[in-house]
Write a structure and sequence with these properties.
The complex is a heterodimer.
Chain A lengths: L6 H5 L1 H4 L4 H19 L3 E3 L4 E3 L2 H12 L1 H17 L19 H24 L7 H29 L4 H9 L2 H21 L5 H9 L2
Antiparallel strand pairs in A: 1-2
Chain B lengths: L2 H5 L9 H4 L2 H17 L3 H17 L4 H8 L3 H15 L1 H24 L2 H10 L11 H31 L6 H25 L11
Helix pairs in contact in B: 3-7, 4-7, 6-7, 8-9, 9-10
Classes of the chains: A mainly alpha, B mainly alpha.
């Protein structure tokens, strides 16, 4: 199987010049989507009214919808403009000062998690192209969970250890609070991603298929 | 949320020495403070640096209210960390940790309060210039930034529209009904934008291979 969407190759700028105008539009608008999801008021879910922000949902969905290279570019663009001073981080924060705060690890983790889940999504979608049934959503959910546990939670814990000087067990406990929301958001992200690929079949799937048939 | 409010949020117009300082110098200040926050081991040093930076911020004429607004988003978290570390590691260490984070936040807000957003974005776009020899295209990069900024109000508006229509149908507790239409219309918007760019000959790679 040949993979044109290999993240290490795609990250090299020579590859990037092959993106057409639609790719640029998708990258820019998904970056705006991540920003917008951080800014809107949290939505109360279920009877308990536990508020969740939609930012990690938007980040994971960017990966699931766009694949590794364009997801890396979209989330990277969001981070870059946030660091440059646009108030687009959650709670209206902005600037490089965010990197000194305890949530720095999560923000860096977004970039890697979106790339990782994008890469896994391409693999899953290509391998399950001919199958129908529950396998694809389950594998996509597993991909999203693995990426967010390793990168978002992993780096999030690391960030709290470095910036808030918590030791590992305390940072781990503080991070546990995010797990229930994350599981809900990943279920939601996979269900939305599948709907998106159904509504726009050439968003990522057809790219994968043409990549497979290419000699 | 209007795009204007977003773009003007942090900048305070003025003509102070700090306003006129070159962008790279202010950027260097922010990075330097970031580095320093890892190296400073004494809370008294942190407090001195913090005082200096606050003085610098006030020197720019932005006023104490702006300073307070810049640090307010991090205060609840810092309070929690400060109290916890006071209990765990003692007052001097807790003060050092909290002050070091504040130093970085104030330094970053000096940059954003004294630099117009357009100058900041031009600075970001010019970051791509050194990579031109590796195939990066600064103009396409700047174009992508511009599209993203234009799209943020669209995304915010889509969230509001969808929330209203979900409420009208009695679906305001269904997260999928609240979010899915936003993403569908966002992808459609992205592709329309791409087509509009392509129709104007913008954003396509310089020498297409196919």
């Amino acid at each position: 199987m040949t993979q044109t969407e290999n993240p290490t190759k795609a990250r090299a700028p020579r590859r990037r010049s092959r993106w057409n105008a639609t790719d640029l539009g998708l990258i820019a608008v998904f970056a705006a989507l991540v920003a917008g999801s951080a800014l809107i008021a949290a939505i109360p879910v279920g009877g308990l009214g536990v508020p969740i922000t939609l930012q990690t949902l938007a980040v994971m969905l960017t990966g699931l919808a766009l694949g590794p290279a364009r997801a890396f570019a979209a989330v990277g663009l969001y981070l870059l403009l946030g660091f440059a001073g646009l108030p687009i981080f959650s709670g209206g924060r902005s600037g490089l000062g965010v990197l000194a705060g305890p949530s720095a690890g999560y923000i860096i983790g977004f970039l890697l998690a979106a790339t990782a889940v994008g890469w896994l999504a391409v693999v899953v979608l290509a391998r399950t192209a001919k199958r129908t049934g529950k396998l694809r959503p389950i594998l996509l959910f597993a991909a999203a969970m693995v990426s967010s546990i390793i990168f978002i939670h992993g780096l999030g814990i690391l960030g709290m250890m470095v910036n808030a000087k918590l030791d590992f067990s305390k940072a781990f406990l503080a991070d546990l609070a995010f797990y229930p929301g994350d599981i809900i958001k990943n279920v939601l992200a996979v269900s939305i991603a599948l709907a998106l690929h159904k509504a726009f079949p050439d968003l990522l799937l057809r790219r994968v298929r043409t990549a497979d048939t290419r000699p | 949320m209007s795009s204007h409010g977003l773009l003007l949020a942090a900048y305070v117009p003025g003509s102070s020495l700090i306003h006129r300082a070159p962008l790279w110098l202010k950027f260097l200040l922010v990075v330097g403070c970031g580095m320093a926050s890892f190296l400073i081991a004494d809370w008294a040093v942190s407090a001195v640096v913090m005082t200096l930076l606050c003085g610098l911020f006030l020197l720019s004429g932005a006023g104490p209210a702006r300073l307070l607004r810049a640090v307010r988003p991090v205060l609840p978290v810092l309070l929690a960390i400060g109290l916890f570390q006071w209990w765990q590691l003692g007052a001097p260490t807790a003060a050092r940790i909290v002050l070091n984070v504040l130093v970085c936040v104030v330094a970053a807000s000096i940059l954003t309060a004294t630099t117009p957003v357009q100058a900041l974005l031009d600075g970001v776009a010019s970051l791509a210039r050194p990579f031109r020899r590796f195939g990066a295209d600064p103009e396409r990069f700047a174009l992508t930034i511009a599209i993203m900024l234009r799209s943020i109000p669209f995304v915010a508006g889509a969230y509001m529209d969808v929330r209203d229509s979900a409420r009208a149908r009695g679906l305001e507790r269904n997260p999928r009904a609240l979010v899915l239409p936003v993403f569908i219309s966002t992808v459609a918007f992205a592709r329309q934008t791409g087509e509009a760019l392509a129709a104007r000959g913008l954003g396509e790679p310089e020498d297409p291979e196919d």
